Amino acid sequence: MIADCFIVLFSLLLRPVSDTSFLPYEQAIPGTNVSFKMMPVAGGSFMMGSNANERNRSADEGPAAKVTVDSFWMEEHEVTYDEYILFADEQADRNPKPDAITRPSPPYIDFTLGMGKAGGFPANSMSQYAAIMYCKWLYKKTGVFYRLPTEAEWEYAARAGAETSYFFGDDDKRLGDYAWYAANSENKYHKVMDKKPNAVGLYDMLGNVAEWTLDQYKENYFEEIKTNASDPWLTPTSRHPITLKGGTFKDEAGKLRCAARLKSDLKWNARDPQIPRSKWWNADAPFIGFRIVRPVKQPTPEAAEQFFAQLLSLK
Q1: Phi-psi category of 113—alpha, beta or left, where left has phi over 0 and alpha has psi -120 to 50?
Q2: Predicted confidence (pLDDT) per residue in 115-132, tens digit
Q3: β-pairing, 72-75 with 35-41?
């Protein structure tokens, strides 16, 4: 029943309402001097997943299937602390809306492990719940509906038209030009945009911090979505497990392939210091982050509110 409701809701979220030019744009966060850039990703079809001969392939990456996604914008880099702290720290949000958004309590431990916050470092160690709450806060601030990408949208954007293991080809010796990973990261994340982008102008899609998607993780994802799927979304019925994409600064090259999938782990919530007020805000995982998308087809305010309400009510 819950999954059926999500399917109906997702169709509402694809309702065309705007003739906005499909170009890169800067989104300012009202009441602050912070902004971020959104890059257009033109919709189309692609082969999602990996073929049986791909090096370092895992069984949950196939069989590869043809998938079609609608057009959207994606943030050019992972959400940074400069952006995220405006939501997470109420004192930093100098122009809150009257309909206040629930926020986490300040953690008593440093989830960054001293790797860096302000100045362009990726926000890290949030749960998917917190990432979705950030999107809701941003919607309230800007009037624009932002959300996490689906797993299909994420892989489509990362590939940027490529059918190889990485968006630049199959040779992982080139990975250091595009990603922070085990071989070059010195076991820490780095500022966004220090490496080369992919063909649609997206930075750090591979490595640095892994990125939350909207989808429930299922090992048989490709059996669930079937072939020739259009805007597939494995709608979650629980907060775990959720799929993350992109690999991390701690991972070897094989885990940074476009088709690679990461399953969220309940252990990441074992040390959340906010109990009981906000039990699921933080993930004890400095290698986890997110980036956001804006669908070209924006939802009605009612559909947007229902979308957030249903996702945030999961147990």
Answers
A1: left
A2: 999 999 999 999 999 999
A3: antiparallel
178-207 per-position pLDDT tens digit: 999 999 999 999 999 999 999 999 999 999
Q: Dihedral of the CA atoms 120, 121, 124, 128 (nearest 10)? A: 30
294 sits in the region (left: phi over 0; alpha: psi -120 to 50; else beta) called: beta
Whole-number Å distance between alpha carbons of 202 and 245: 14
- Strands 288-289 and 210-216, how do they pair? parallel
List residues bridging with 102 in a β-sheet. Answer: none
How distant is the alpha carbon of residue 6 from its chain centre? 19
Render pLDDT for 41-73 as a digit per residue (tens, 0 to 9).
999 999 999 999 999 999 999 999 999 999 999
Buried b (16+ CB within 10 A) or exposed e, 156-166: bbbbbebeebb
Task: Report in angstroms the alpha-carbon separations of 313 from 202, 237, 277.
Answer: 31, 10, 15
Q: Is 294 helix (H, G, I), strand (E, B) or coil?
A: strand
CATH number of 2-312: 3.90.1580.10, 3.40.640.10, 1.10.10.200, 3.40.50.880? 3.90.1580.10
Rounded to two decimals, what is the model's pTM? 0.91
Q: What is the pLDDT of residue 102?
A: 74
- Residue positions counted in the chain: 315
Preceding omega of 149 cis (within 30 degrees of 0): no
Domain segments of the chain as ranges: 2-312
Predicted confidence (pLDDT) per residue in 133-178, tens digit? 999 999 999 999 999 999 999 999 999 999 999 999 999 999 999 9
Query: What 8-state DSSP symbol labels residue 147?
Result: B
